[in-house]
Design brief:
The protein has helices spanning 7-15, 20-52, 57-90. With 91 residues, it is mainly α. It has two domains: 1-54, no CATH class; 55-91. It starts with 6 loop residues before the first helix and ends with a helix.
Amino acid sequence: MQVYLSDELYDIVKSQGLSASGLLQDAVRAHCERQEKIRAAREYVQEMYAELGPPTAEESEWAETKAREIIASLRAGTEAVAARQASLSED
């Protein structure tokens, strides 16, 4: 199998001493695992719909609010980690 990396990506991989093959394997594995989790979640939701029926408008609103809160929390955590890494690299 052949895989094309742009010159820019190739330079980044090499400058960081990374293995393009290893990165590709990790990325494909992570993608496949993510797709399997999505499939399983959809199957679970279909089972819940069959058992309980669709959510009410109030339940959907609650879930959307919780999802937004989780996303905001994850973003804040990611930003905090990035800031910490930046401050460590300055030292």
